[in-house]
Amino acid sequence: xxxxxxxxxxxxxGCGGSYRRTHWILLLVVALADRLFKLRLPPPxxxxxxxxxxxxxxxxxxxFLESYKKIFGRxxxxxxxxxxxxxxxxxxxxxxxxxxxxxxxxxxxxATGSLIGAVSTAGVAxxxxxxxxxxLLSFGAGAVFGWTFGQEIANHWLELxxxxxxxxxxRFLDWWEKKCNGQS
Length: 184
Fold this sequence. Notes:
The chain is mainly alpha-helical and 184 residues long. The protein has two domains: 2-63; 83-180, no CATH class. It has seven helices and two strands. Strand 1 (2-6) and strand 2 (9-13) form a beta hairpin. The longest helix has 34 residues, at 96-129. One of its GO terms (cellular component) is respiratory chain complex II (succinate dehydrogenase). One of its GO terms (molecular function) is protein-membrane adaptor activity. It comes from Amborella trichopoda. InterPro entries: SDH6 (IPR034574).
């Protein structure tokens, strides 16, 4: 068994038949942690010598995480915004405004799908099993499945696949930050 320790966290990899799968899962977890939290890892031990070779590869695959640093890496959170503020942004930005509006509509469709999925699957589970824990589990699973189906329906109906909704969301957050600081 090989192990690698990060402070109090100790990661171990067995030498059994699942060595390769566990090895790659461990590599993925460490790559995500390094990307999200900018960990400065100790030099890799013998089983992980390929880490330096693969770090750039995984860094390119998870480059989208850089966008989230603007949202989650703030010292002070942004104040809440209202629908009127969003509509003001939609009116002021001809490129990203309609994209943001479509993304917000898609979220409402997905939430509706989540509600429908949760209630219907929980109802069916309760009808046929009369089991509270089964109904609760099916409620949760139905909510997840309903959200997924609702998001896919909205994606095709509103043609979100043609838009860069992440850029629209980030543009809105930049605009909102400037407005709250009195720069706009």
